[in-house]
Specification:
alpha/beta; Rossmann fold; Arc Repressor Mutant, subunit A; 2 domains; transcription regulation; DJ-1/PfpI
Length: 377
């Protein structure tokens, strides 16, 4: 199935600070570059300006010069938001956050119309202020960059602001923290739409972590002293290759040549999650990959992912992802050739290459809407 169109709001008429280009570039990179070997068709990306389509050059130069900002022109305008399947507001100008400068009324109206038309609404960083102004976050849990969450909560008391998470998936409305957390959310959308395999392969091409759950902490404790034992990377890579085995925190600590307490402290500082929650997240990711790309029975997938029995697999899927393994499999029908070895299987885990595949969203009685959950303490 076509993953649909993605409309990204570009605040052209009120200037785009150069430091906000990062949030703008994230959806352009994730959704704008076709990936025909992963999914065909890919997303249809549209950049929709808040300004007039034909703005005179003097006004454009004035917008570009103010505060080292940039002025951009696009082929699409705010009227095009209502026809999109997904609408993303990357950020809003600092003046609208810090100084209370009003957001363009036309933008707020267009966001409401897009939501009423059935679009999935997404904000990155301070883009949450635009969704909140449109009333789309009322009664919902939401987040933004932790430096601005207090202002968001004060200005919009009907919003349940969570300043500790990377992103919040509330089904048809999703919000993220700033900078790299926006990339996490965009990859999460690909994971929802096209499956874990496609999202993982796209992340690999972008040289970023394949999946950071939304409940992971926004920032880490940099006061934790460094040690001489090097990065946690080798032990975490080893654990990923042995998820089918009954790993414990003690096993990981022994492999890393450190005490369980030190491992817990360092992993918490590096990822914002505990060793047990990290293992659970990896096992769930393995199970998703196997459900998408093999016909193995649920019992076998539970075994290979290290989640144990089929009942235990169902329990964690329902709690963490929001659907049963069977419904997840129906939503992402297998398309990897039978003759192609799967990299998640134990016999292929020591470096087997991952092959090409295409994934289409299939019909399912239960929509696949993974939930972002807080990490265990």
């Amino acid at each position: 199935m076509n993953p649909g169109s993605v409309a990204v709001v570009v605040a052209e008429d009120i200037g785009v600070p150069s430091w906000d280009l990062y949030e703008l570039s994230i959806p352009c990179t994730v959704f704008g570059k076709p990936q025909p070997d992963l999914a065909d068709p890919w997303y249809d990306l549209r950049l929709c300006s808040t300004g007039e389509p034909e703005q005179d050059s003097s006004a454009a130069r004035a917008g570009a010069g103010a505060g080292a900002g940039l002025s951009m022109r696009t082929r699409y305008g705010l009227d095009d938001l209502a026809g999109a399947d997904t609408v993303i507001v990357p950020s809003v100008p600092d003046a609208c956050v810090e100084d209370g400068r009003p957001l363009p009324p036309a933008l707020i109206t267009a966001l409401r119309h897009a939501y009423d038309a059935g679009a999935r609404m997404v904000s990155l960083c301070t883009g949450a202020f635009a969704l909140a102004e449109a009333g789309l976050l009322d009664g919902r849990r939401a987040t933004a960059h932790w430096m601005h969450t207090a202002q968001l909560a004060e200005r919009y008391p009907k919003v349940e602001v969570d300043d500790s998470v990377l992103y919040v998936d509330d089904g048809d409305v999703l919000t993220s923290a700033g900078l790299t957390a926006g990339l996490d959310l965009c990859l999460h959308l690909v994971r929802r739409d096209l499956g874990a395999h496609v999202a993982n392969q796209l992340a690999r091409r972008m040289v970023v972590p394949a999946h950071r759950p939304g409940g992971q902490a926004q920032f880490i404790d940099l006061s934790v002293p460094t040690t001489d034992d090097g990065s946690l990377g080798p032990v975490l890579d080893w654990a990923r290759r042995h998820l089918d085995q009954p790993l414990t925190v003690e096993d990981l600590a022994q492999r890393a040549a450190m005490s369980p307490r030190t491992l817990h402290r360092r992993l918490q500082a590096a990822t914002g999650t505990t060793p047990l929650q990290w293992l659970l997240n990896q096992r769930l990711g393995r199970a998703q990959n196997l459900l998408e790309s093999t016909d193995l029975p649920i019992e076998k997938i539970g075994e290979l992912s290290g989640l144990g029995t089929a009942n235990n697999l169902r329990h964690h899927f329902l709690k963490q992802i929001g659907v049963s393994p069977s419904n997840y499999r129906r939503a992402f029908p297998r398309t990897m050739p039978d003759s192609e070895p799967h990299p998640s299987l134990p016999e292929n885990r020591e470096g087997a290459g991952e092959g090409r595949r295409r994934t289409d969203r299939g019909a399912s009685d239960t929509p696949v809407t993974p939930r972002a959950t807080a990490s265990d303490n």
